[in-house]
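Hey, quick one: can you model this chain's 3D structure?
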Amino acid sequence: MASALDLQEQEQLDNLKAFWAQWGNLITTVLTLALLAYAGWNAWIWYQRDQGQKASVLYENVEQLLEAQQADKAAQLLGEMQKQAPKAVYTTQATLLVANAMADAAKAQPLLSWAATQGQPQDLRDLANLRLAGLHLEAKRAAEAELALAAIQSEAYAALVADRRGDLALLAKDSAKAKEQFSKAYLGLDADLPYRRLVEAKLMSVGVDPSSLKPAGEAAQ
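Sure thing. Here's the predicted structure for all 221 residues.
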């Protein structure tokens, strides 16, 4: 009986050896890759958390420098943030703050360009592109302004994008398109927003009575 069991165990052991000889390397590789992926994911989470914590401290320092009217020093510190934690949301927020504090458009433009292309998340990239389009408009760079507007993805900015495109149309002396875009902007903005009054003035300047405008659903009734 013991001999039969020994033979059965030996047969199972031989089968296991044969199986491992055929599939052992593959199984080891798969397990190794899975463990590496898990370790990599944990390392990435730790890295993101660590970068966010560092960036939050630097962000506060940037704010303090701006409050002290030291925009140039804030820009230098921002450069360190962009090197140390380029993917942190705080870094993009700090970039937008410093760009807003720059009186010289030539200094603000590269900051906005960085935020528009490398900032996180997408909503802040959209905001950077909207402000970048404004700088290009002031400099009468129509093509560059349109490129910045075209890069905006969020529907939340649709009305403001239309307003900028109305400004572009005025620059091109296209009154029909200006009316269309300003009307879209006016209808897309909440009635209690102060900025809507500015769009209202733009509409009146191109011969459109804002009170005559109706949302698409109401106009169809």
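One thing worth noting: Confidence is low (pLDDT under 50) at residues 38-44.
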